[in-house]
Amino acid sequence: MSQSSPRHTAPPRLERPSPVAFILLLAFAAFFISGFSSADIHPDRLLSGVVNLGTFFGEALPPNFSRWDVIAVAMLETFQMAIVGVVFGVILSLPMALLCARNTSPHPAIRVVARNLVATLRTVPDLVWALIFVVAVGLGPLAGILAIIMDTIGFCARFFSERIEEVDPGPGQALAATGASRSGVVCGAIIPECTPSFVATSLFSVEKAIRSAVVLGLVGAGGIGVELSAAMNLFRYDQALTVILAILVVVIGVEQVSAWIRKRVI
Question: Where are the transmembrane segments (predicted)?
Fold first, then answer.
């Protein structure tokens, strides 16, 4: 008795989009076309851009290492800005995350206020924070550190609170049954379970902060960005390339170390 071969069903046809989806698609297409046309993209501009890019690299190569000591000090300052900002940002993110999480917030109203505050900190770009703090405390690394703290709180507090909401309630309920206080449950059950995730998120914040610290220097918030801005403004492209190479080495090194630590922790 022969067995019939299995019949292959054809993939289902795409369903006709609903009127709302069709309107959204048209709106997206209109925005895309409008944005593309406003960019004023023409072949001659692209060709001149390639020529100018070739001129830049022609003047930048070979890189000028005559000011390597100044660049190294500025790069160290950038790294220190990122580390200090992330450390304070992570420390402040933990209580904020406990207020944002559904299972640790003392009251729904406090949770709503805390979540909106974190969303505000996350929404404002770090460059805007740097401009605000440059006005507040003046030029220098302090403005950059404060900007990184704000950006880190907005980034870490969100992911910390989401991880806290995902914890297994069993250990916490067992501690509460033995008479442990609310803070005892948080310290004895919730935080230990979330620690690997907290460490991974904090390491991502370090990588993010180092890249941000480079940009923050362009508005006077200290670090290597000041050297890069000065070199570009003075058309010293060979020195600018040296700064770019220093940034590249530090960022790649930090990412590799961060990845190694995450593999050990998680």
Answer: 20-39, 70-98, 127-149, 213-235, 241-261
Give kind and range of the element (H or E) at residue 55: helix 43-60
Residue 93 neighbours by CB distance under 10 Å? 29
CA 114 from centre of chain: 20
pLDDT given at position 80: 86
Q: Residue 57 CA to chain centroid, in angstroms?
A: 29
Burial environment of residue 88 by CB neighbours within 10 A (0 to 12, 13 to 18, 19 or more): middle
Residues whose CB is less than 8 angstroms from the CB of residue 223 and which lie 6 or more positions away in sequence, other chains included:
74, 75, 77, 78, 81, 141, 144, 213, 214, 216, 217
pLDDT at 178 over 70: yes
Collapsing DSSP to helix, strand or coil, 34 comes out as helix
Query: Does the structure show a pLDDT above 80 at 41?
Result: no
pLDDT of the residue at 48: 79
